[in-house]
Amino acid sequence: MSTRDHDGDDRPRDQNDDPSDPGSTDHQDPSAEAKVRRPTKHDRALTLLTEHLQLRRSEYGWPYARGGDRLFRFDRAGRNELYAEARHLWRKANEDTPPDERTLRQVVADLQRTAQDAAVDDAAATEWLGEHGVEAPPDESDHEGGLAALLELPGAPVDGDYVIPDPYTVAPDAIWRWRIDGPPERVAWGPVLATKVFTDPDGEELVELAWWHRHRWRIATVPRAIAKSGRMLVRELGNRGLPITEADAKSAERFLAAVETANTDTIQEVTIARALGWQADGTFVAASGHPYEVHGIEHQLQRALEAHREHGSLTGWQTAVKAAQRYPSVAAAIYAGLAAPLLEVLGISSFTLNLAGTSTGGKTTAAQGGLSCWADPDEAGGAITSWSATKTAHQARLALAGNGTPLLFDDTQTAGKPEIVSDMLYQVTQNQGKGRMGEWRSYRWRTILLSTGERSALSFATHQGISARVLDLAGSPFGHSERSGPDAQAFREGVTANYGLAGPAFVERLRSYLGTHGPDKLLARHAELTELHRQDATSIARRRAPLVAVIRLAAELAHYFEIVPFPSLPDTTWRTLFVADDPRDNRAQLALEVIKEYIASFSDRLYESGRTAPPGGWIGTRTEIGDDKNAIALLPQRVREALSNAGYELDAVLQGWREAKALHEHPPGSKQRPVYQIARRIGGSKPRCFAFRGELFSDDE
């Protein structure tokens, strides 16, 4: 016999304890019996259901409840039926309101746990389940998961060795997951299979998926991260008929993970590239499938990638380019196209070769010669990118060129703004660009950019250091002789009919050469050529010398490898092209000459007190600044217009003007910004102006 103390502990009752004794520890208030805890609604509901139902466990492993001739499963529908049954029984047995839904959920959960611990059904109970529509799950010992039905679909992307893992079954209209605690769960509304895994030399992976949609198999390749996320997969492929809904996304991603694990030895693993050129394992990819397929590029680059292919013959290409021996700028463009793979070997960063000249001068045709080493150089071929494209498109195209193939941006004049050209010329030298959010990695490259335009690329440059990374070739590449036109036409027709051959052949021989001799001989020859081009050169030409040496080394190798059918250009020709003192390097001084001519032409539009503003308005004013009695202050917008009309960008020459002390500036420590603009009275206003020193005009009339 025991009793429960105030702490709820059971203890033996002392025979001397007298409940009637006021001093007894067991003395209780007469109303204590009324204060004994009554059963909660949870307990009462649990008791009702337990008395009314049989809690059982099927031989298939899942629990259930049986009430008379009714079957209650512990799935969503079955739980809702149990909630309703509990309320019905409660109203029959009690006068107060039934428990709330939260309490009923707890009650049914307790029933499920009890049923899960019950003994396994006997044969009679299993027969009763069959009479109530419960089918036995597939025999696990012979589980093929619906594979036979898939193989009967036309063009099935898998074979008989493919495994559909337990507990899944795949059908032409669904993927099911069998459950021990309820009916099968729909995972998808059609078969979705992992069929290939692509791995690049850096270890990044893509997964090829195949699914049945509208009576045919669809194929797509997605990054591994997307294949691991059902919701991302729906967003990526939902518009292409992927038979997965967002509600099924979590179950679908688990199915794909299980399928890949079960087919580790069945699913083909393919080495791929993410870009053209040199790969991390030392392979060189000249085109998709040679030797690795290129995957994971942006959709808009597909045509550019497809343009990298072989067409015609190497002999046909050699016949076409033979005329370049008479035209050094054309030959230089071809050599630049072949030089791109040498950058990695020599440790040289990316740079630009720009062909500048008037329209119909053959500059695009010459650049097409360099591009033809690797790709279809025709304007409609897809490999050429316009300077009018966006910054992101330019960076993506550079990334496709990768490490060792050249590319062509055509016609700088089509760029929406001059700074687009300047920014991209600078970006090229950085060997990388900013990756877009969500992309697999940042854009990276090591390449030679072939560029064309009607004016020097350096006239666009506003970033420090660009001048040393841009090689400009001015003038008509094919000259102006009687042979120029026919030669240019024959050249263009030849390289657009025979392309994608010289570059791969050059790399094949280069790799063989490196395998025999290593890189030391090439490094030594490059150093020798660099020093040769630094002799008696200007400061900027000395900095460009390593770039010229790369192109010249490519010329020597191309002839040695029997790719180009004529020897490298003579030394004097190379110097004429790249080493001679180029006045375009002194853009700041040339721009000053433009301003001096502008002032001389529009001197009547310099403001003077008392005069009426001329048509077109004032351009500036004569002024005194300190000891300078002849300074001329010009409105910034007038300066910019004058330079633009002459082919210069203000930002590209401003720093040179400041270094040359051509402008008056506020004294050091001044809070005026910018320091190189000084306010002067012009008409009824006092705008900030560029104040040019009077000594610049001392020789002018």
TrEMBL record:
Compositional bias annotation for Basic and acidic residues: 1-16, 24-36
Region (Disordered), start-end ranges: 1-43
Pfam family, one: DUF927
Record domain DUF927: where: 182-436
InterPro entries the UniProt entry points to: DUF927
Annotated protein name in UniProt: DUF927 domain-containing protein
Organism of provenance: Actinomadura harenae
